[in-house]
Structures are given as structure tokens and as C-alpha cells.
Amino acid sequence: MTAPLRVLIVDDDDLMRAGLRAVLSSDETIQVVDEAADGAQAVTRVREARPDVVLMDVRMPRLDGIAATREITATASQARILILTTFEDEDYIFGALHAGASGFLLKRTRPEQLIAAIHAVAEGDSLLSPSVTRTVIERMARSPQPDPAGGRRLRSLTPREREVLELVARGLANAEIAATLVVEESTVKTHLKRIMAKLELRDRVQAVILAYETGLVRPGEAPVRGVPRP
Amino acid sequence: MTAPLRVLIVDDDDLMRAGLRAVLSSDETIQVVDEAADGAQAVTRVREARPDVVLMDVRMPRLDGIAATREITATASQARILILTTFEDEDYIFGALHAGASGFLLKRTRPEQLIAAIHAVAEGDSLLSPSVTRTVIERMARSPQPDPAGGRRLRSLTPREREVLELVARGLANAEIAATLVVEESTVKTHLKRIMAKLELRDRVQAVILAYETGLVRPGEAPVRGVPRP
DNA sequence: CCGGGCGTACCCCCGGAGGGGTAGCCGGAC
DNA sequence: GTCCGGCTACCCCTCCGGGGGTACGCCCGG
């Protein structure tokens, strides 16, 4: 048997922390190494106690569980974070998952399942409460993106043309694209003319839109070029 | 006790269908009402047999399970669809979820869990195999979207300016925006000037990018205006 | 009552974008 | 060998987009 899993409990409610500690101490494969009463404490305690798994509440003073999760996963910490909350709020769920949480459980989860979940996330697995799973799936179903039909349109472009289109969608002017690809601006213009003709676009703006709609570029991939220089 | 759950088995492999039928028939709360050997059959059988739950394979001739799922959920069918496949392919997973599947299980799932899963999806819950959950969560963590920081930038715009920005991001030319808002084009230009000054953007292309990056508009929301008219 | 934000509207000016057409060069297909 | 697709590169010309500045009515808040 390996060493017990090191767990950090984060919750602003004293009773809840005590309860969790009691539940977890019944399992000899788990060792509660420390507690924190808010997100800010959690961040420092993680650094000090180096837990394997963090049980994280969401609603807390000072720094909420989502922000704390973001902090912790942003640092090189190996700690896996398991959100444990009463509220099945959509913003919480997606906020936590984007922040890098490995799981999202509701506090109504039964003790045995909580223990199983801690082991699961420690192993690298992820898990969600069933109703949370449902919410996540519904969101995915609602926002279908990488439009396969649009992708088909893009396939009529040559590799070079796709490359130009992508740079257009990054906000570059023709001269900048030319510099990037090390060709003349006139060449870029020629490519662009063909692109717009093939895709039946009116101007580069519609080209940018198509690039986003087809998933050629995606939100979050490209920092908006801050070039206020005219 | 209510009537047994009506289940349709869809798999191109005869043995697999037989096996599933055997497993499910051991449970008296489940009634296998029909089978289909490919996606096209599945679509028609769903119409005829009106199952509560469809166990759907992915890799099949004629019409694959993803496409069949899309067909079925697109119609008014109440059938809930549970994907059951050997392959943990990312495209399969996200394709299926976008197509409206209620769950995604691997064929290595144990019989009891499969039966439990069928009941769960029939109840309206959703569920994923643990490793699939992991994949889904990782994808969410990788693509954080409705950028809250970007949203903050947008808040410096007046309502009217946001409205103009959105139309710009839909690919409209200034004159078209003017017509849409029933104002003069010169007014649109004035708004646009202020927008670009406030957000430190160089041209409307960067405005479109910012609109997508901040979630003011999202892929899939706006059909690309097909206006090849010059 | 008066300042200021907002929405509206114009002016002049010019540079980049986009339409149309032409052309050389290269590599692979036939 | 020949032909075609892809990449490169120009020319000319038009016009929309964007910079800078001004202005006026409206409504809200101090």
C-alpha cells in the first residue's frame, strides 16, 4: 500500500469542515493534512501542505473557490481540485471547469462516493455529479461549433490561401500579412481576391467571420492584436 | 411499478446485439423492443418502435451513430440516446454530445452499470464513462470562452455602440448598419470612430475579432451573410 | 440651471481595400 | 512533351473606411 492521499479541506463553514474531516478520517487511505476557511488561505495552504487533492467549496469570503482554483492550477501545483458545493449554478460549474477543476460534486453526495471520488481524481480521472453532467452535456448540445459544412467550404482553398485567411482573421493588414509570409503585398492581395471569390465573400470582414464560424480560428486562440498605431 | 423501459439496440455487429439483448433481458424493468444494424435503420425503427432509450453504436455502415443521433434528436422524438462504443475518440465524443446524445459509455462498461445507465438517461439524467468525463473536462479547461476581462472592455461602450459593434461583427457594411438602425451612415461612422477609439482598435476587422473573443457574438449564432453583391 | 454623456449628423481628406486583368515560374499530372 | 494548378507579382482604378473636427437636441444628475 502506498502512502495515504493528502487532502486539504477548504470551506468557510466550521461545521462543514469538521464533518468532512470526520467522514474522511474514517478512511485510512486518506489523510487530511490541513484546512482553509477561504480561497486566499487555500492558495497558501496548498503551497505549504502540498496536498494531492483539494476539496474546495465555492462560496467563500475574500476569494471564492473558482478564483482560488484558478490560482492554484495556474501555479505548477500538482494538486487536483475537487469542487464540493451545494449550488448547482451554471456559472459555478463552467467557471470551475475552466479554472481547471478536476471534478464538481454536490454536497448531497454520499460519503462513500466522496471518498471514491477523491481517489478517482487523485488517479487523474475526472468526475461530475450526475445532474452536473447533465448541465454540461446540455450546454454542449446547445452550442455546436466546428461547423463541418463550413469546413467543407474552406477545403476549396489552397494551403497558402488558408494561411492568408488565418492571418486576416488575426486582424493583420495586407502589408503585415505580406511581411509575415515574406511575399509582396500584391501577392497577398491576389490571394485575398481568390479567397473572397471562392467563398463568395464581400470583404475581409466577412472572411474573418467565416474563419470564426468554421473554426479555422477560435475564440481564445488569438490575442487581439493591440496595434492602435495608425 | 410502471411499464418496462422500451429499448432499441443499434449495432452493426450481430454478436454485439445478441449480447446486449441477453444482458438486458436479464432485467425485467427493461424491454428490448427492436434492433437496428445501421444508422439509417435506427432512424426508421425509432419512428416505428418508439423506444424510450436507444443504445447507439458509433461506427456503422450507411449512417454512423453520430449522424443517426442527430437525425433522431432533430425530429420530435422523445427517445433518449445512449452512445455505446469501443472507441474513445474525441471527435466521437463531442460529435455525439453536440448531436444531442444523453450519454456516452464505453463498451467495457459492466452490465449492471449499463442497466443503471439506461434507467438514468430514461429519467432525464445524463452520464459519461469516467475517462470520457475526463476528456470533456479537459476540453472545457482548454477553451475558456466568455472572456470576463474582455467583457469589461465592452462595458465602456454605450448601448448604442455595442449594437453597432454587433452589426459590424455580423459582416454588415456601414450603409447596411445605417439602414438596419434607421439612422444616417454618417452617424454609424461616428459611432464606429468612438468604438475604435475606446477599444483601441485599428479597423473594423479588429472590432469583429474582439466581438468574437469577448463573446459579444459567438460562432453558430450568426449565419455568415452571403452577400456577394458588389 | 447648467454640465456632460449620448445619439444624431455633417464636413474634408486620403489611404487601404478590393475589382479586373495580365503574366512568369515551377512542379506534378497526363 | 504539354498542360494545369498553385504561388508569385504588377498595373489601373474605384470607393469604402477611417481620422479629425464641429455641432445640436435630449435627458439626466448635481
Automatic annotation (TrEMBL), chains A, B:
Modified positions (4-aspartylphosphate) in chain numbering: D57
Family annotation (Gene3D superfamilies): 3.40.50.2300
Domain HTH luxR-type: 150-215
Keyword terms, alphabetized: DNA-binding, Phosphoprotein, Transcription, Transcription regulation
Superkingdom classification of source: Bacteria
Residues of the Response regulatory domain: 6-122
Pfam families: GerE, Response_reg
Designated name of the protein: Response regulator transcription factor
Naturally occurring in which organism (per UniProt): Plantactinospora alkalitolerans
The organism's taxonomic lineage, starting at the top: Bacteria, Bacillati, Actinomycetota, Actinomycetes, Micromonosporales
